[in-house]
Amino acid sequence: MEEKQRIQQLTEKIATEGFAAIILADPEAIAYYTGYEIEPMERLWLLVIQPNYRPQLIANKLFQFTENPDLDLDILWVDDNTDTIEAFMWLDHFVETHEQVKIGVDKYWPAGQLLPVMSYYSEAKFRLASLYVDAQRGIKSEQEQERMRAASLINDRVMARLATELLPTGPSEIEACQALERYYQEAGADGGFSFPPIVAYGKNGADPHHESDHTRPQVGDAIVVDIGCRHQGYASDMTRTFYYGQVSDLDRQLYQTCLEANLLGIEASQVGQQFQAIDAACRDHIDQAGYGENFVHRTGHFIGRSAHEAGDVSASNYHPVEAGQVFSIEPGIYLSDQTAVRIEDLVIAQAEGPEVINHYPKDLQIIPIQDH
């Protein structure tokens, strides 16, 4: 069972690092290790992994899930009247028997829960331990890779439908986003959006994280479409840039430059290559074209159960690429109050070379305008 193996691997790792336990609060991390999908809001939902004891799940009685006996977990049920400290009495035996017990915590544990525990068990040493979880989640198994391919295939189909059926009718940005929700459902996505979709016309695209509004496309507008869905617990993400009715010489030049940067970044995504070198492959090309200052973000981010996971493709990441890592290559050029272009694909690093899991075409595409 994949989840049980993941727990065992993490248990062995934290044991070698001298941790008595690691406490996970990130719902996506807990789902990764247990298969239980819960959104806890402010309630206790924690996975405790201990080298010398059975793993323990601390769960509010309001949460409904079917227990998997193969996981071999202890479950500590709490309710809304349980004081936070009451849920951590199991820490007593660590603190009593160790002079400097080391407890790992993850970066998502809310301070309102963490600080009372740290204060009560002041003898213990609490240390951030997310890097062990992040490193493990960063290498996708064959099963995970297949799920990401399936999510990206749905994304390809929805992008095609958006470009051929909807955009020619001139919908507002918000109307396009509303249609996307239905398109994903009809295409078989079982988890909705992986992030709020971006449909940005004209100068709106120059804001890389534009919140879609009531703007409608004008002839000659660039249309930046950044969308993704969740399927089988995994996220997809892809950006394409289209042109409404016609394309200017400037936009054509920007598009070609960005496309070449995208392809160079993909080509550089080789196992053993440093991530900063992949970023440089994209960034240097755009800089040489005279638009370096208009490429305002990193080249990419890791992706898996979450649309953005730990790890990125940036000038500050000197780690080498490892087989099984999945990340985006998404160079962009943004001319404030004018226009923009971004082209994004997801890459799985493979020993034999990068595997691109988006297949919607990247040739410059002009959206025909339908008569109203």
TrEMBL record:
It comes from the Bacteria. Gene3D superfamilies: Creatinase/methionine aminopeptidase superfamily, Creatinase/prolidase N-terminal domain. Pfam families: Creatinase_N, Peptidase_M24. Keywords: Aminopeptidase, Hydrolase, Protease. InterPro entries: Creatin/AminoP/Spt16_N (IPR029149), Creatinase/aminopeptidase-like (IPR036005), Creatinase_N (IPR000587), Pept_M24 (IPR000994), Peptidase_M24B (IPR050659). One of its GO terms (molecular function) is aminopeptidase activity. This is Xaa-Pro aminopeptidase. It comes from Aerococcus urinaehominis.
